[in-house]
Amino acid sequence: MALIKLKQGFDLNLKGKITQEIVSEPTQSETFAIIPDDFTGVIPRMEKKPGEHVVAGEVIYHDKNDEKIKVTSPVSGTVAEVVRGDRRKILAVTVTPDNKGESKSFDTRSNPKELLLESGLWAMLRQRPYDIVPNTDVRPRDIFITAFDSAPLAPSLKTVLGDDERFLDKAVEVLLSLTDGKVYMGCPTDYTIDSTGAETNTFAGPHPAGNAGVQIANIKPVNKGEVVWTLDVITAARIGKLFETGKVDYDTTVALTGCGIAEPCYVKATMGCSLKSLLDGRLVEDGKEKRIISGNVLTGVKENLDGFLHAPYRHITVINEINKKDEFMGWASLSPKKYSIYRVFTSWLCGRHKEVDLDAKLNGGERAIVLCGEYDKMLPMDIYAEFLIKSIIAFDIDKMEQLGIYEVAPEDFALAEYADTSKLELQRIVREGLDKMRAEMC
Do residues 125 and 231 lie in contact, with contact meaning Cβ atoms separated by under 8 Å? Predict the structure, then answer.
């Protein structure tokens, strides 16, 4: 077991942490949703129509470009609606549950790859390069499992995993059959998983230490022409449970955090449930407008109260939208309450890691990139982040390849985006760059 110490990065210490690891029971969700944008690289083609009955684990749609990749229903019930946007793009597929708890049974003697594809768990994996659902025709060099989330207010994956940790040995056995290389397990210093067959590495350092891309870069980087898969320990446990029980389990534990939650806590839930069922009666009633985020404040998706829990997340964050639209003196303020990760305001004298109550205000506008190395301070990877961003904007393919485009995903730049004095949407830039690169190279 190797200990890898990371210095770059930053732990954003927000108010609204969970102080007691007690898991509460949720209100029953009246609607569930499968959101295609959660499965990057998959273009949905429906197999079920509104009004048709489905059971948990039954196929809702498959990938237009590869019919073997399927996305399945998290619950049993009736397909209620296919919500479409511009150019008839499918934005969501909603399911009304029948509360019968019926699940599709799978033959665990099947080929592991075929079983993962048929059950829909294949769509929960991610491939580097391009950060997409894996190509079914490519065998990965290695597979990386991350066992912790270092994002602001992130849940403890040990708590979310619970008793399902016993399925990890089976999951590693299955994953090893899908690669000619190794299965790596990335753990925090306070929670080590010693799973049979996996090579465990412990990471010490600030966020983004828990990101799969950071762990890959510090264990065995991705080079041009190589493919690796990534997944979190919760998805790994689901894979192990599928091969042990023959059924897909989409139940999870969700962390409700942030200054907008009256009592931050863990709640039992099912993937795709409505946010109303999770947040009803749990929001702070102070008259301030709230921003609800499915995920964490850095990478999550902004939602309304009538939205849904997105598939990759086990985390809901609620913060204030904007406390004060107009501030006296703005960035030149001498107020000790004004916060920055840099030593710009006097608040740093109170300690950079003091709990802070931040809202969703942008505090500035977009401006030109200043090459001062601030991205590199937030990204513990052996790449020149600022030069990579500039090459993506220019779409210089040769430069993108040389600067490490195949190693990164949008989430790796989330912290740098927060710290960026240029206020650029780095995650959007990286996502568009990866999509263009994939279209050009594949």
Answer: yes
